[in-house]
Amino acid sequence: MTDDILGGLELLLQPAPLFFLFLGVTVGFVVGVLPGLSTSNTAALLLPFSISLPLESSLVLIVSIYAGAAFGGAVPAILLNVPGETGSAVTALDGHPMAKDGQGGYAIGIARMASVLGGVISGLVVLLVLAPLGDLALKFGPREMFVVILLGFVVASSLMGAKVYRGLLAGLLGLMIATVGASPLSAEQRFTFDVLSLYEGVPFIPALIGAFAVSEMLLLISERKLVQVDRSGIYIGGTKRQMDDAVRGVRTTLKHPGAVAQATGVGMFLGVIPGIGTSIANFVSYGFARRRSKHPERFGKGSPEGIIAAEACDNAVTSATLVPTLTLGIPGSATMAVVLGALLLQGVQPGPRVLVSNSGEVYAVVLALIVASLLILPLGVLLAAPLTQVTRIPIKFLVPAVLFLSLTGSFATRNSTFDVALTLGFGVLAYFMRLHGYPVIPMILALILGPLAEENLMRSLALGNDSIGYFFGSPVVNILWVLFVAMIGYLIWAGVRARRQEATDSADDGPVDTESQR
Amino acid sequence: MDAGRGGDSGPEARVSRFGPGLWVWRLSVALLILVVAVGMLVGSSGIEGRDAFYPRVLAAVVTAFALYAIVREAQEFLAERRGTTGSDTEPESIDNVPDAGVEGRGGVGVAARRVVAFCAVAVVSVWLIDWVGYYIASAVLLAGGVLVLGVRSPLKVAIYTGALIGVAYLLFGLLLGVPLPRPLWS
Known about the structure:
heterodimer; A: mainly alpha; two-stranded antiparallel sheet; 22 helices; 2 strands; disordered C terminus; B: mainly alpha; 6 helices
């Protein structure tokens, strides 16, 4: 393992990956600050242009954007009460009251240090657990992989969206789309309608860019009134005051080691579950912190502990999502789906073998996430004030520009206008689904998981002479089946409970409590 | 897309007022997926041997699940219309998150004309790419896009479009060497 880590370090400490690390964190800040541009959108947009880069640089760029955005989203959340990322909504609960009291810079300082600690600690843990988990995953045969994919698909799909059945249905749609193209068995063409561009399947990048970026832009312009941000209180002082606030933020955060550890732990635990994402994890972390605090009454009114709970957790989730992504090939989040897309585009099959075939690149990515988290401290001080000005870009100028970039990116991958049209098609489909409360992330995950599921299913059937009994023929696969059945049981139980709760709420004339995540 | 709103005298009057159009709109995603699944089931009959196994099983599962989803959507829609599960204008996504916007609200509050006009501009510009080339089609997209979104100053539209096309030319045309589509006449 030490050799692998050193190999990763050697790869990372080259000029090109380091350049993309800096670039990624900076772009991540911008993305995080801009409401409407999410990390996954930006990573998807950059994917076509990163194909020409070496694998490690391409991956480092994506995860650095992820780390930068995890903190960047806190800046507008604190100063303007407009979360740049969904997870930052929790930061706004205590950060914005502090900003209104003229303590915006101090709140940003706390958020910055909490982000650094959350990212670094969780990154180090990921670094240590990756190899043992990878070794375990390597023992999985096709039948185990099939059940793992099934489990990952159900977990990820059911946890996204307001209703479990909507997430699952969106995922199933993705699985159907993934059957388009050559069969993995005989390369016979299926559902291609003689369209040459579909012979290798539905291209991933147009689907990804359309589902994430284009649909997001359409949602932005769907508001009756194009949202303009109230910029009062955006000023966070001159350089000296910003430095003072940064130092105070560091001190305050370090005075709450328990809060940092708890938030990081919650983020890591929830982050390894595919599909949980930062918004749910941050709310859970915030709830824990308030319950554990000596001053719960201060939460929501400008408590530093509240900011720490949200921000340390946010960055811990970011690192933790690497675990299912790299050990099982199941994306832990939308951005990790882009990471898997980058691997596929570079000819690397996602899954446990990545840890053997590309161990250097994998460890370089984890190390990049740690270094990117550390970089948040200096770059965050330098860039926080100028980046608040980014929020001045009006939506009416932002949306056509992002769409233009999206369509260009789609074209650049295969020089195909068919892909451009497909991007638009996926964008409209995803927009339509999101309007109706159907999450699109399961659809994209299914596009990746679908071919893997089919391949492993067919290989298992071949190995077991078409016997169903083969799928229950090892202790490991039986444990996985038990987990799968338990998950299905939990979903049914949770569904029944939610419906009863809804009925009770409506009888009491109370609010409908629903939960979702992007 | 405001059809989901009530504004009538009572729950029963509201129930009686929603017609087939509203039903189709509410169930549209599940219906669409059902149609795709049935199409796949039918289409898989043309695939031979083991290659057909996975798509056939998948299509059958999706068909069954889409039917279940349609029933669930219908039940929820009826309950909402009767006012038993809170307001239908309540967003179903991310509770209390400020940027939840129109997502998950079934089209309620959507500026439909703006979205349709913007999509039309995008479709036209994509259709134009093979005829007039990348740069002119992009100019149509950018200028048309900002016009639809309310920018009325010709100078601003021209500067915005020109600047982005210029950046694209430098970045994609010169720096990255992407072979962007050229006009038919060139």
